[in-house]
Write a structure and sequence with these properties.
The complex is a heterodimer. Chain A is an alpha/beta fold. Chain A has two domains: 4-12 and 256-384, Aspartate Aminotransferase, domain 1; 16-253, Aspartate Aminotransferase, domain 2. Chain A has helices spanning 16-28, 38-58, 71-82, 97-108, 126-132, 155-165, 184-187, 225-228, 236-254, 257-275, 302-311, 331-335, 340-344, 357-376, 379-384; strands at 4-5, 65-68, 88-92, 112-116, 137-141, 168-172, 191-195, 206-210, 279-281, 292-297, 314-315, 346-350. In chain A, the strands form three sheets. Chain A has a seven-stranded mixed beta sheet, with helices on both faces. In chain A, strands 9-10-12 form a three-stranded antiparallel beta sheet. In chain A, α4 links the parallel β3 and β4. The two termini of chain A are 35 Å apart. The model of chain A has no long low-confidence stretch (mean pLDDT 95). By secondary structure, chain B is an alpha/beta fold. Chain B folds into two domains: 5-12 and 257-393, Aspartate Aminotransferase, domain 1 (Alpha-Beta Complex), CATH 3.90.1150; 17-253, Aspartate Aminotransferase, domain 2 (3-Layer(aba) Sandwich). Chain B has eleven helices and twelve strands. Chain B has helices at residues 17-27, 39-58, 72-86, 101-112, 130-136, 159-169, 240-278, 307-316, 337-341, 346-349, 363-393, and strands spanning 5-6, 66-69, 92-96, 116-120, 141-145, 172-176, 195-199, 210-214, 282-285, 295-300, 319-320, 353-356. In chain B, α4 links the parallel β3 and β4. Chain B starts with a strand and ends with a helix. In chain B, 57% of the residues are buried. Classes of the chains: A alpha/beta, B alpha/beta. At the A-B interface, α1, α2, α3, α4 and α9 of A face α1, α2, α3, α4 and α7 of B.
């Protein structure tokens, strides 16, 4: 049976070039990058080349890139690395759980946290961030692009006001990297998280950009890896895979790849909206990353639609994979003003580099009829339409 | 570079081709996020649960007692920080003076937070005396953390005796088994240890993946917060290929451990005999018998200061060995704190040459090493003499 995967915000398939780069390491280069002998030196060189590739993608210096085990660790490291008891942190109500739950944990350590709201399009108003500033504010953590809606946040404006207020600015760019240009100096951030497996690299590796001069308390203690910032033997094949994925992501931004994805996404969205009534795009009036579409199908149980589509070969999701199976409606969509029912009726379509126009056709064949069939069974829908 | 000899298996090990083959489908084909509900997600979920059972089986644990981490270091941190933080960030921890930095540095961090830590001494072989553990216990002691086997000298600790004492006192016992896993039998059904740190890349598995065994009922606070994966103990999208690789490495280790231990011990003895025959000044660090099967730590009396050059000579001759922990390799020249704790003087504590053998090493490689070593030792000496002569002329 044909499978079409439209859940690239959850994870992406490895690109063949990335697999090839990792395969070479797996076969031949196994040294511990901290060892001083030949076996160690060759993997050290591979790690440093990957660091350069990531730095080029972000517009920073290689020494400002710290490899982690993923986006979650990078987010945690940024927040726990800076915020101390008695200090104040500003975040938003639509952050990924890695930031949100780290903030909740900071509260138990004696920090105060303000979660600024978003508007109906899922965007943070920089003025709300400004108003939330206090004399003891240490850090602002606002994501660059939302994982559920793809809505881009005004990070440059927030970066500017963070600099004016002399407050650190962290942005979780896990869903933005590779989809839009990410330049740490344009954003004006001090810390930026990214994850390899969201950009067609391997799982289990990520990175935190740490602006030169920013001192973080480590999260884990041990050997002096990553300039004593992150203990643990380097995951060499993972890091090499991330480096290759970063190079390919940069190429993808340079050529017309993102325009192609935006074209596919827009056609999917417009056609679905025309073909299925009582349907809206969440965050439609805000700038979004080119691959993501969150669509609310009134009176549908999103979980049921995900399962029905999966059976027919289409992989999509109701939102963040981390909370799949959760009974709670999405905190992102409810923060935008959707009712719990509307939030549960929303589906996320997220495209990746491997997707084609035929994949969109496949989804366009499948989704309207599946929605129609589920709605036939919905008393709510039949009462109101 | 083909033909190079790798004798640094305590630092890391080559990936077993069978492990690579087990991982390949999860790098090239199956790629889902294990938390996703669709088929791609469920395939990934099934794979990591299978691997969890495989890693559990290696130590006699049930799958639900295994939490995957990104490394052995993270497992050590989760065990120690997790236990102490779950108890309000207070109390007393007992460890030893020769632990890996992942344990020692974590304990030092806790000391900075007001937690009391006792660093137990060790004897000349690096052994912790279980009676010292008993004597160090205080009413507020919440954790004992003693490594299963030393990364530096290979000495295996008396885990069973220590565990008996911690169990008697109702204190949690953590062991960093990163070096011991897959090399000596460990069975949590017989050994009342509560927490065990593991790392895949030390047993011919992939880098970037480790695990913590957490005995059922033991409560920990997480170190990483987020999506609530690994039963809330370790948030982050799971490293599926890495976990699958760890599982494959665990099965192979379980099946091959008995025979592999014999083969490695025989190779190790061949190295030791050969070295002693060629270099009478050679001596052994660590316990002569109670040590990891493939692990040798050597010193050369009177030539301790030249071990850096010796490593270089051997490296140039195509042989990778080390002066101790890779984590501190770039700080060579400092005396090893662990050797000082074992009672060696500063001179000796600078002069360790670690030869650690692994699954794919052969007798031929050992023999080539034995051919090259005496010359490498002499070359280091000769260079020293030349330099000394040079400085005299100046």
């Amino acid at each position: 049976m044909r499978r079409v995967y439209f859940d690239n915000n959850a994870t992406t398939p490895l690109l063949p070039e990335v697999f090839a780069a990792m395969e070479a390491i797996y076969r031949e280069h196994f040294g511990n990058a901290s060892s001083i002998h030949h076996h160690g030196q060759e993997t050290r060189a591979a790690v440093e080349r990957a660091r350069e590739s990531v730095a080029v993608l972000l517009g920073c210096r290689p020494a400002e890139v710290v490899f982690t085990s993923g986006g979650t660790e990078a987010d945690n490291f940024a927040l726990f690395g800076l915020a101390r008891s008695g200090q104040h942190v500003i975040s938003s109500s639509i952050e990924h759980h890695a930031v949100m739950n780290a903030c909740e944990h900071l509260k138990t350590r004696g920090c105060e946290v303000t979660f600024v709201p978003v508007d109906g399009n899922g965007q943070v108003d920089p003025q709300d961030v400004r108003r939330a500033l206090r004399p003891n504010t240490k850090l602002i953590s606002i994501m660059m692009a939302n994982n559920e809606t793809g809505v881009l946040q005004p990070v440059e404006e927030i970066g500017k006001l963070a600099a004016e207020a002399d407050v650190y600015f962290h942005t979780d760019a896990v869903q933005a990297v590779g989809k839009v240009a990410v330049d740490v100096n344009k954003i004006g951030c001090d810390l930026l998280s990214l994850s390899s497996h969201k950009i067609h690299g391997p799982q289990g590796v990520g990175a935190l950009y740490v602006r030169k001069g920013t001192i973080l308390q480590p999260m884990m203690y041990g050997g002096r890896h990553e300039r004593s910032r992150r203990a643990g033997t380097e995951n060499v094949p993972g890091i090499v895979g991330l480096g290759r994925a970063a190079e390919l992501a940069r190429n993808g931004l340079g050529n017309s790849e993102m325009a192609r994805l935006a074209g596919l996404r827009d056609r999917l969205e417009k056609t679905l909206l025309a073909a299925v009534d009582a349907t809206r795009v969440n965050g439609r009036n805000a700038p979004r990353v080119p691959n993501t579409s969150s669509i609310c199908f009134d009176s549908i149980e999103g979980e049921a639609l995900v399962i029905a589509l999966d059976l027919k070969g289409l992989a999509v999701s109701t939102g963040a994979a981390c909370s799949s199976g959760a009974i709670e409606p999405s905190h992102v969509l409810t923060a935008m003003g959707l009712s719990p029912d509307q939030a549960r009726a929303s589906l996320r379509f997220s495209l990746g580099k491997q997707n084609t126009a035929e994949d969109v056709d496949f989804a366009l064949d499948l989704v309207p009829q599946t929605v129609a069939r589920l709605r036939e069974l919905s008393p709510v829908y039949n009462r109101s339409h | 570079m083909s033909g190079r000899i790798y004798f640094d298996h305590s630092a890391t090990t080559p990936l077993d081709p069978r492990v690579r083959q087990a991982m390949a489908p999860f790098l090239d084909g199956i790629f889902g996020n294990p938390s996703s509900q669709h088929r791609e997600g469920r395939q990934a979920r099934e794979a990591i649960e299978k691997a969890r059972a495989q890693v559990g089986a290696l130590i006699g644990a049930s799958p639900t007692e295994i939490v995957f981490t990104a490394s052995g270091t993270e497992a050590d941190n989760l065990a120690i920080l997790g236990v102490v933080r779950a108890r309000g960030g207070q109390g007393h921890v007992i460890t030893s003076a020769i632990e890996h930095p992942a344990v020692l540095e974590t304990c030092r961090h806790l000391e900075g937070q007001g937690v009391a830590v006792t660093y137990l001494p060790v004897d000349q072989y690096g052994l912790v005396n279980p009676e010292n553990v008993r004597a160090a216990i205080r009413p507020d002691t919440c954790l004992v953390s003693i490594m299963a086997a030393s990364n530096l000298v290979g000495t295996i600790q008396p885990l069973a005796e220590i565990a008996r004492i911690t169990r008697e006192h109702g204190i949690l016992f953590h062991t960093d088994a990163v070096q011991a896993l897959g090399k000596i039998p460990l069975d949590v059904r017989k050994l009342p240890v509560d927490l065990i740190s593991m790392s895949a890349h030390k047993l011919h598995g992939p880098k970037g993946i480790g695990a913590l065994y957490i005995r059922r009922g033991v409560e920990l606070s997480p170190v990483v917060f987020g999506g609530g994966q690994e039963r809330g103990l370790r948030s982050a999208t799971e490293n599926v290929a890495g976990i699958v690789g760890f599982g494959a490495a665990a099965i192979i280790a379980q099946e091959e451990l008995p025979i592999e231990a014999l083969l490695l011990r025989a190779l190790r003895e061949r190295v030791l005999e050969g070295v002693r025959a060629a270099l009478p000044q050679a001596y052994l660090f660590g316990h002569p018998e109670t040590r990891l099967p493939g692990h040798l730590s050597l010193g050369f009396a009177g030539e301790e200061s030249r071990v850096g050059k010796l490593l270089e000579e051997l490296d140039n001759a195509g042989i990778s060995v080390s002066a101790g922990s890779a984590c501190s390799a770039h700080h060579a020249g400092n005396p090893s704190q662990a050797l000082l704790a074992m009672g060696y003087n500063e001179e000796s504590a600078r002069g360790l040459l670690r030869v650690t053998l692994g699954r794919f090493n052969t007798r031929e490689e050992v023999d080539r090493f034995l051919q090259v070593l005496p010359g490498a030792v002499d070359a280091g000496n000769a260079e020293d003499l030349l330099q000394a002569a040079g400085s005299l002329q100046e």
